[in-house]
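Running this now, will post back.
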Amino acid sequence: MENKTLIVIGGGAAGFFCAVNAAKMNAGLRVILLEKQQKLLSKVKVSGGGRCNVTHACFEIDELAKYYPRGEKFLRKAFHWFNTTHTIDWFEERGVKITKESDGRMFPISNDSQTIIDCLLKEATKYKVEIITGCDVGSISKQDEYWQLETGRHTYKADFVCVAAGGYNTLAKFDWLQKLGHTIETPVPSLFTFNIPKNPIIELMGVSVPTVQIKLAGSKLQTIGAILITHWGLSGPAVLKLSAWGARELANKDYKFTIMVNWLNDCNEQQLREQWNGLRNELAAQKIGNKNPFGLPNRLWNYFLLHCKISEDARWAELTSANQNKLITTLTAQQFDVHGKTTFKEEFVTCGGIKLSEIDPNKMESKKVPNLFFAGEVLDVDGVTGGFNFQNAWTSGWIAAKAVASR
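Update: finished.
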């Protein structure tokens, strides 16, 4: 009997993982991977500053799924098949040890993303995956029992197709998949930083605070994490998490909105007011510029004093009620008007894609079209920063591979 063929569209993390695992699980399966760019695994290369944030040290399935603004319920089922533990084991079985950092992010022990790339390429060679770059699929259609893919240069036929083409930034780019009968959730950016042009705080670029609380004004949406001041505005995990959870809401606002930053995180305005007199009496004779009792970076503390029109040479006992009130509000609920966004480094992530109710999470197969599979960001799944989007890629790629290999 003639061997069956799987074509994987997309040479990123999800596509590669699907291809190499399907080829390994079924030696009689011909696996072809098509990538429109000349470079393979480009996101893997730049991830984590070139170190590749492979996954996150979260090992409870229900807890892991909570890190996905879109796809939580879907992934709770998928993670039973392949989760963080499986990812770590898979790479370590192939000689790539994965280590955990204090914030839970996990990287190859080499701290070099090329280690992950080389591992995947080695697997592709070992299991004879045919890789074709510079190959852009223009259309896909069902011809009798076969799939037919047109690339402009060549026509390919396959028994199974796995679409792992990544996230698209416009609805129009999903046209070829809509023609197959699938519904597309409109794509909008996720994981981006906030622009606050002309705000004096950007002069403090490079200053970071390990734990702050950020709240979107007029919304219940808030996040906690580190914040980084940049030359264009605000970045860091707290900002990126807010951008992910608020992706659609912020897009609807055309990226013009107000946030409130609590620089003290676990101390709100009312609590600080209750503590203030004791703090002021304790530090009464000291110059306020020399005594920062909140553990904030000195440059940031001096900025707060300037913002509140308080002299650095003033004694704590000399603070006027007006100065005191403004400083308390600034520390616990400083407002920033955001005008626009900036992509986080080179990691472009979208919210949106193939509607999840149309996909079987136990197979990653279309419920509408048999023998059509999806993996990675082309689905309406996206996670917060910290290795979660790669975990979705490994999980969905592996599940699709297993489903195809068993046919």
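The longest strand covers residues 208-216. More later if anyone needs it.
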